[in-house]
Amino acid sequence: MSDLRDDVSDLFAALTGREPDGLWSAPGRVNLLGDHTDYHDGFALPFAIDRRTLVAAGARDDAVLRVVSALSDQAIEVRLDELDAVRGRAGWADYPLGVAWALGRSGADLAAVPGVDLVLDSNVPVGAGLSSSAALESAVALALDDLWRLGMSHPALAQAGRLAENDFVGAPTGILDQTAAMLGRRDAALLLDSRSLATEYVDLGLEAAGLAIVVLETGESHSHATGGYGDRRAESEAAAVRLGATSLRDLGIDDLVRARATLDDLGFRRVRHVVSENARVLEAVRLLRADGPTAIGALLDASHASLRDDYEVSTPELDLAVETARENGALGARMTGGGFGGSAIALAPVDAISRIQVALDGAFSEHGFAQPEVYPVRPSDGATRDR
Ligand code: GLA
What we know:
This protein has helices at 2-16, 83-86, 94-105, 132-147, 154-169, 176-183, 228-242, 256-262, 265-291, 297-310, 316-327, 353-366; strands spanning 22-31, 43-44, 46-59, 64-69, 75-79, 116-122, 188-193, 199-203, 211-217, 332-335, 343-349, 373-377, 384-385. It is an alpha+beta fold. It has a six-stranded mixed beta sheet with strand order 5-4-6-3-1-13, with helices on both faces. Strands 10-11-9-12 form a four-stranded antiparallel beta sheet. Strands 2-7-8 form a three-stranded antiparallel beta sheet, with helices on both faces. β10 (332-335) and β11 (343-349) form a beta hairpin. α3 packs across α4. The protein is globular and about 60 Å long. The two termini are 13 Å apart. The structure holds alpha-D-galactopyranose. The site of alpha-D-galactopyranose has 12 residues, from α6.
């Protein structure tokens, strides 16, 4: 991390000929439980991971936003009053530009603030389902909030990040990722109520239990701006309408009898996933608090089955990763995030991690899948100013 901080500051100095005004960072996330619930006003239990996106930033004396990433050789420059014109057309730069635009929509007077140079670097893997996009949005949101003296709260900045992603980038995602990136806390997960946006920290106590959360990156890249994610959202929202519900959050397990009688099989399964997943999140929080992390393995397994069979967002690679981890010592495992590729997570004894790594390598090559990346992640703090 400290190397990455020096690198991004040095890159800033090389590109602008001056020192940055500051350095900000925000993490990627995994979701322990509660997927495809956030846009139904439901519950989720993510944590921020020890992989971060860094932003070195400095105010300019004109009204231009200039973004450069160490991961791309392209510098993008847009005037603050012309952001609308590039909306959805700037590739990776849509994320930082979209945040500036969203802050404008959230009350910042973009005609009164200075332009900014933003130089980015990251060790959050891109397209791996670990929310590199929310890490980027959140680091930029905090940097601009400071430099423009907006005084916005972390939850408000999370909402600006989501607005950027929904209305500037064009991905119809919920508030899960930005909340984890803005509000994460060391050694804790975050219980998110996506309706009220209330959050509660839930201690994980992984280390004391000799456990770790292990990321199983399948290497299948995914994007939520296109394809399956939006389809699932539309299918399940249509089912909610047929049931006369404002949102699926309002349904409980008892309502599934009526749902089965009212909906076709596909609609019913989409609803059953959301309703049961909300219940699993609340049950996991109860178990974590009562009995600690060893108690939640079966809930992770049940969540994976539901995402695979009812919501149909898993893939053969994710299923294989989850099964292999379980067969090699994990207490539970599931895909995490939006699915259609990306990563799974396993709750595993620390001393089983290397066995899981070796077994996954073997299983993936046997199936002709690309080599997976397997590594533990530590629940970490959310967005911060680092210098
Ligand atoms: C993606 C989205 C989130 C959430 C998850 C699924 O990560 O960005 O808002 O919907 O998928 O839980």
